[in-house]
Design brief:
Immunoglobulin-like; 17-stranded mixed β-sheet; globular; CehA/McbA family metallohydrolase; Pol/histidinol_Pase-like
Length: 521
């Protein structure tokens, strides 16, 4: 019996940016009969990645897609294939049927178009939580991955635990920045990380900070990060690994700048606000950030629907830089993040501002707006989506955790493409005000609040402050109980730091007492 070789056809694909007509980095997935093609083109941009810094992946992503810089070639058996091309959230995805005939080469050129251009509006996207080890040699390769997901700033985080560190970076701050075509790779850290107090992150510092001998004293790390010009925060919406405990311990004492509000680590819905609103209602401002936690977060690390698998940029935050973004660098980006000029998103785009109707001053997310008692404010919120890719559903204005304005795509004058809401309110006391939006499955967005104060007062919520102070005390008691309970695994090392943690608990209790006197008058 003679086996005949199967006829092979060369497939050549070029993908152009429709606005420039030049090849552009993209994500590609090629399937046949619903199964991914396991052959990788030589043009695929490959970087080692994996859980615990292992070599779990290289050329292929968890959903069997791969990145190319705009072109690729493959020799394939004749047959019918499906080609999926994407470039992040703002470009329209494309799917094409390809019929390869025996002995006949096939060349195709496709153009990707945007449904929105946030950079043109002065907003620059960031994935604030990526774990890939890096040396200067990998910079251009990782940058292509970033550009293929249309992420402007990618924060590569060295990860640590009590015992070890992972995903090393060769430099930090300006020295660790790599820039190409007004995109940035920057460095940071997710460290300390404990199952007792949560996972903390730092972005933009001039160097890494690690003190194993004081590992559970997160505030020591935060203070040093601030000295080095960075911003600090709690990851995973402070939900997993008891992050809410650390958030209270450090946040009430003024050590925390940011809060990872949107991410796919907890469940399929990326937006979880409980612990964020807890801090805001106590009058503590926090910048909203987001990040993919690639390659960690996503459904089953590769065994779920492709749209929910771990991928760079599936959760991101946008920072307003305006004209300054035309010369994007670590300094101006970090300053804007520290100022809270952000919104988080897994699809929808938000435009949100508050205006003092008497003075005419207008504030954007993160701003503090002071008005006189009895004056009115005008709140304007808009959400942008795409009917086929980011179909908007609901836009809400939230004040002190309560919805004060709401529209849906089914209301008159609204649509799945754009929602708008405008309110004019008299104010007698301060409040934090934010916009949030829901769209298709797993698509949501939320702004950092605008903090409105009246006659120099605060923006806390007097109706919930007592509840949240009680809850804060409950979390401190959880830490105390932890210190008196033998650990169940080697990752729990809080007992080594009993005296220092008790000192910090006492300091936080004094803050809670001061807040009771101040906020509950």
């Amino acid at each position: 019996m003679v086996l005949r070789a199967q006829p092979i056809t060369q497939l050549s694909i070029t993908i152009l940016d429709a606005s420039t007509n030049k090849p552009t980095p993209v994500r590609v997935r090629l399937t046949r009969n619903g199964r991914a093609i396991t052959q990788l083109p030589t043009e695929a941009v490959a970087v080692m990645y994996g859980l615990w810094d292992h070599e779990d992946g290289y050329g292929f992503q968890p959903d069997s897609s791969f990145y190319v810089a705009g072109k690729f070639h493959l020799n394939l058996p004749a047959g019918t294939y499906e080609l999926a091309i994407s470039k992040g959230n703002e470009f329209l995805r494309q799917t094409h049927k390809l019929v390869l005939s025996a002995g006949k080469n096939l060349s195709k050129t496709y153009r990707l178009s945007r449904w929105i251009n946030t950079v043109a509006k002065g907003w620059y996207s960031t994935d604030g939580h990526i774990h890939i080890r890096r040396s200067p040699r990998e910079n251009p390769l990782i940058m292509t991955w970033l550009q293929a997901e249309d992420v402007r700033i990618g924060a590569l985080l060295r990860m640590g635990d009590f015992w070890e560190t992972y995903y090393p970076q060769y430099a930090y701050g300006e020295k660790g920045m790599y820039k190409h075509d007004n995109h940035l790779l920057i460095t940071g850290q997710e460290d300390p990380r404990t199952p007792d107090l949560g996972h903390a992150f730092a972005l933009g510092a001039a160097d890494r900070v690690r003190r194993r001998e004081r590992y559970y004293y997160y505030d020591d790390i935060f203070d040093k990060v601030h000295q080095l010009g960075g911003v600090t925060g709690y990851a995973h919406q402070a939900e997993t690994f008891h992050g809410y405990r650390g958030l209270i311990l450090d946040g009430l004492r003024g050590k925390v700048d940011a809060f990872e509000l949107l991410q796919f680590c907890v469940d399929d819905h990326p937006l979880h606000t409980d612990h964020y609103y807890h801090m805001l209602d106590l009058g503590i401002p926090l910048t909203a950030t987001a990040g993919s936690d690639f390659p960690w977060c996503g459904q089953d690390h590769g065994h779920g629907p492709p749209e929910r698998l771990s991928r760079i940029g599936n959760a991101r935050f946008y920072t307003y830089l305006g004209k300054a973004g035309e010369n994007l660098n670590v300094s101006n980006w970090r300053s804007a993040v520290a100022a809270g000029h952000t919104f988080v998103s897994s699809g929808p785009i938000l435009d949100f501002n508050v205006t003092d109707t008497s003075a005419g001053d207008t504030a954007i997310p993160g701003d503090h707006l002071t008005i006189k008692r009895g004056n009115s404010i005008t709140i304007t919120a808009r959400a942008y989506g795409h009917p086929g890719q980011v179909p908007l559903d609901t836009l809400e204005i939230v004040s002190h955790g309560r919805v004060i304005g709401r529209v849906t795509a089914r209301d008159s004058g609204q649509s799945a493409e754009q929602l708008s809401l405008r309110l004019t309110l008299p104010l007698e006391r301060g409040q934090w005000i934010a916009a949030r939006c829901s769209a298709g499955p797993s698509q949501a967005a939320h702004t950092t609040p605008i903090y409105v104060t009246v006659d120099g007062g605060g923006f806390h919520n007097p109706e919930t402050a007592g509840h949240y102070l009680d809850l804060s005390e409950q979390y401190l008691q959880e830490i105390e109980k932890l210190l008196d309970t033998p650990p169940t695994n080697v990752e729990q090392q809080a007992g080594r730091y009993r005296d220092g943690l008790k000192t910090r608990i006492d300091e936080t209790r004094r803050v809670i007492g001061t807040l009771r006197q101040k906020l509950l008058r």
